[in-house]
Amino acid sequence: MITVVTRFAPSPTGRLHLGHAFSALTAFRFAGVHGGRFLLRIEDIDTGRCRAEFVDGIFEDLAWLGLTWEAPVRRQSEHMEDYAAALARLQAAGVVYPCFCTRADIAAAATAPHGAQPLYPGTCRALDAQTRARRMAEPHAWRLDVARAAAITGPLSWHDAVQGEIAATPETEGDVVLARKDAGTSYHLSVTVDDALQGVTDVVRGEDLFSATHIHRLLQGLLSLPTPRYHHHPLLTGPEGKRLAKRDRAETLAELRARGVPPEAIKHQLGFA
């Protein structure tokens, strides 16, 4: 029997809100029901936005809700060598390329249907070897050559708890960034490596990350990593039907606590009574 391992992996760029609480409680309950383990991971590679007080706030809020987790807590900023090693393997396989484009360059060249996230147009993928070598001293990111990578792995799939077996279609996400200009990694690379190193068997997260799973499955295939089961839960929304988000100043758990709302009321509201 394989022990179930779930995780909650917030970025410390603000205080947690009800949407975070729902995701954390869902992962925690899933582990408990299956006699498994629950991990907390701090995804703090964005050094410009992540702050120590928000890390402390995550611990405070989750403990207030009654959650417990294993120690030590993995902090991504302390494990950059793991991501560098994975990136080096991908470089050796010839499935990544340096990208020198600025955000303005990409916005000017990318196209997408109305309301959709524009895909990277592959500008730097087409650079010849001499031009790349000449420009390597410039700031650059590393992008995944999705077409070349998919040709190596062949067809892939992954299992979603709601939708069943899903054929991976990473091409719908375009050539995503695997290492940012200001960091040696990105969300896609870090989360894939972390889940494998921590032995996560069941990834419980919001349905807004469903599409990212296509890229994560491709990276797992390239790096010969195990594929967890995925559970993409619905997102909580506010009174206007818009999903709760830090950038929209969704009421935080700290603010609810300051108003005297007990954790039992929060759990009841979220369906965990």
Can you walk me through this structure?
This protein has 273 residues and is α/β, with parallel strands linked by helices. The protein has two domains: 1-78 and 237-273, HUPs (Rossmann fold); 80-197 and 210-225, Rossmann fold. It is 37% helix and 15% strand. It has helices at residues 18-33, 52-64, 80-92, 103-109, 129-135, 146-153, 187-197, 212-223, 253-258, 263-269, and strands at 5-8, 37-42, 74-75, 96-99, 141-144, 157-160, 164-167, 177-179, 202-206, 229-233. Strands 1-2-3 form a three-stranded parallel beta sheet, with helices on one face. A three-stranded antiparallel beta sheet has the order 4-5-8. It has a two-stranded antiparallel sheet with strand order 6-7. It is globular. Residues 4-268 form the Glutamyl/glutaminyl-tRNA synthetase class Ib catalytic domain.
